[in-house]
Design goal:
Structural class of chain B: mainly alpha
Number of strands of chain B: 2
Oligomer: heterodimer
Number of helices of chain A: 12
Helix content of chain A: over 70%
Structural class of chain A: mainly alpha
Helix content of chain B: over 70%
Shape of chain B: flat
Strand order of the largest sheet of chain A: 1-2
CATH architecture of chain A: Orthogonal Bundle
Shape of chain A: flat
CATH superfamily of the domain at 94-272 and 297-309 in chain B: MetI-like
Strand order of the largest sheet of chain B: 1-2
Largest interface: A-B, 88 and 86 residues
Largest sheet of chain B: 2 strands, antiparallel
Largest sheet of chain A: 2 strands, antiparallel
Chain lengths: 293, 310
């Protein structure tokens, strides 16, 4: 009799069945989203792995880009990313310091936030049009690393701003108050207390930006990256090849490319990007474990 | 009288803190303010520069009715160039639409699983995987559409061409889903735990808690996630350029090739002379794209801000 009172009713059983079913459904959805990508990555590794070698990374493409390596594209991507970082990191950190430490909560700050969201949301090809109209034509930089990197820097600026702002805001307010009470100015507080405590968080965001910048194609297509260049870039006013554009070129524009070559290019590109992201994630987790407050 | 002014000025001097540090502080304040407004300067700059390049065509040559209603995009025809973006809009809309059909259920499902069911290590790893998926560059996605999806579709459905709405839609869906997942997960996490506890105390099962309590409370954030996904699909360039087949066409089924607005700019800008009608027409498409994505982002932001206020 007593046991019967606590036994599962028909309704309970039905609920439990639904519960199980729903959970299985959601697991299925999550795995269906992730599995195809893992299969694709495996295909890239299998097919691209066969062309990968030290020579592939460090020799020039030959025979109309159907043979040889990817060295000029690799070097070009490093140029583009480095120049873009020099422009966007100081600017993005300044913007984040303003938003986190100085900005009052008013309509103007909301306007800045809206501009940041839109800067991240504008299609990459519109950034490319802007790069052509502003840097290539109006400022007369021509198609050069400078034009391409400026375009990339503006496009990826929101990544630096958002991650830096988060890192700054993670520093407890009491740290700042303690410093102000000692008679320090705002800037002294930021430089001696806030920034040292946020520097690793900022670095995480910068690594993330490197990965974003290296993978972009559309913004550099008409501003500074070229299909093929017989010379390595010597300075920021030169044109250059780039990994992302090189993948587009060898997979769509060049006839007679052996089947596995584009897979190799794709594998190197995706390897670079995922490595950067993994470093950034590992760094973040390490930080979370270390945090003292 | 004079004694008191003397005292005042002494006081002023004693309390005047304007030393070197004070000036540095002010200078830095100006500098970071300039950094802060740079985002506004850039977004206005983008609009001004693409308008400047396209404006001559926009107000002189362009026939607005033809632009939006003609399916013929033949800008390089020397005798009678036609500038109609209807077919291009249909291409963009069909691909984005299919992508959302795929991405919305999967990203919301994954977000619910991560936020409500998964625990501990599983949750951490799923979040990391989703973040890594979001990092794959769009040109790599395009390459996947071209080399892996294309033969797969030809074989599975026995069709002559695999570079179609279906191909680009799946690729774009897989691309947009990770970003939508992480925004949707944030929205679910923002629902206070006391809501869940209250529902559980009333005897609700986990599914009932999610369906009747968490989802309605997170509605705005989820809508914001979907809108950002739409914006993302709308503006995607390289993947769509490589996977759609790039044929001007109003699609009748998912097995038709199409061409997108963004891909048209990417494919043709290199061939045009600066300042020509064709060049300006491409910038006009750019203005159109800018305005639409601006509207989508603005709406998403307003919706998401709505929940923060309440």
């Amino acid at each position: 009799m007593d046991n019967q009172m606590f036994a599962a009713t028909k309704l309970n059983q039905k609920n439990q069945r639904t519960e199980k079913l729903v959970q299985i459904l959601f697991i299925l959805m999550a795995s269906l989203l992730i599995l195809p990508v893992l299969v694709i990555l495996a295909t890239l590794i299998v097919k691209g792995g066969s062309v990968l070698s030290i020579d592939f990374l460090f020799t020039d493409p030959t025979n109309g880009m159907t043979e040889g390596g990817i060295f000029p594209a690799l070097l070009g991507t490093i140029w583009l990313v480095a120049v873009a970082l020099i422009i966007s990191v100081p600017l993005g950190i300044a913007a984040a310091i303003y938003l986190s430490e100085y900005a009052p909560d008013n309509w103007f700050t909301r306007l800045i936030n809206l501009a940041i969201i839109n800067l991240a949301g504008v299609p990459s090809i519109v950034h490319a049009l802007f790069g052509v109209g502003a840097f290539v034509v109006f400022f007369g930089f021509g198609t050069s690393i400078l034009s391409a990197s400026l375009t990339l820097a503006i496009m990826t600026l929101p990544v630096v701003i958002v991650s830096t702002r988060e890192a700054l805001q993670a520093v407890p307010h009491s740290f700042r108050e303690a410093c102000w009470n000692m008679g320090a100015t705002r800037w002294q507080t930021i430089r001696r207390v806030v920034l040292p405590n946020a520097v690793s968080g900022i670095l995480t965001g910068v690594i993330l930006e490197v990965s974003r910048t290296a993978g972009e194609t559309a913004p550099i297509m008409f501003t500074g990256a070229v299909f093929f260049s017989p010379f390595l870039p010597q300075g920021i006013m030169d044109q250059t090849m780039a990994m992302s554009l090189h993948l587009f070129v060898v997979s769509t524009q060049v006839p007679g490319v052996p089947e596995n070559l584009p897979y190799g290019v794709a594998l190197v590109l995706i390897g670079m990007v995922l490595l950067m992201n993994s470093v950034s994630i590992a760094f973040r987790m390490h930080l979370r474990g270390k945090k003292k407050w | 009288m004079s004694a008191s002014t003397g005292l005042d000025s002494n006081c002023d001097q004693a309390f005047d803190q304007r030393n070197l540090d004070w000036y540095i502080d002010k200078a830095v304040q100006v500098l970071v303010f300039m950094g802060g407004i740079s985002a506004i300067i850039f977004i206005v700059g983008i609009f001004l520069f693409i308008t400047k390049e396209g404006i001559g065509f926009l107000f002189e040559t362009l026939d607005f009715e033809e632009f939006f209603t003609s399916p013929y995009w033949e800008p390089s025809d020397e005798d009678a160039p036609e500038y109609g973006i209807l077919a291009l809009m249909a291409g963009t809309a069909s691909v984005t639409g299919l992508a959302m059909l795929i991405a919305i259920p999967f990203s919301l499902g994954t977000a619910i699983y991560i936020a409500e069911f998964a625990t501990g290590k599983t949750r951490e790893w799923l979040k990391i995987l989703v973040e890594l998926l979001a990092a794959i560059p769009s040109v790599v996605w395009g390459f996947i559409g071209l080399t892996i999806m294309n033969p797969l579709i030809i074989e599975l459905f026995d069709v002559p061409v695999g570079l179609t709405v279906l191909n680009a839609g799946i690729i774009l869906g897989l691309m947009a889903a990770p970003i939508m997942t992480s925004i949707a997960e944030d929205a679910l996490k923002a629902v206070p735990d006391r809501y869940r506890e209250a529902a559980e105390a009333m005897g609700a099962t986990r599914w009932q808690v999610i369906f009747k309590t968490v989802l309605p409370a997170a509605k705005n954030g989820l809508l914001g996630a979907i809108l950002l996904g739409v914006g993302r699909g709308f503006g995607e360039t390289m993947a769509v350029l490589m996977a759609t087949g790039h044929a001007i066409n109003i699609p009748g089924s998912v097995f038709d090739s199409v061409r997108a607005l963004t891909a048209t700019i990417a494919a043709e800008l290199g061939e045009t002379a600066v300042g020509s009608d064709h060049y300006q027409a491409l910038f006009t498409i750019g203005i159109f794209l800018f305005l639409i994505t601006f509207l989508i982002n603005l709406t998403a932001d307003l919706i998401v801000r709505g929940i923060r206020k309440s």
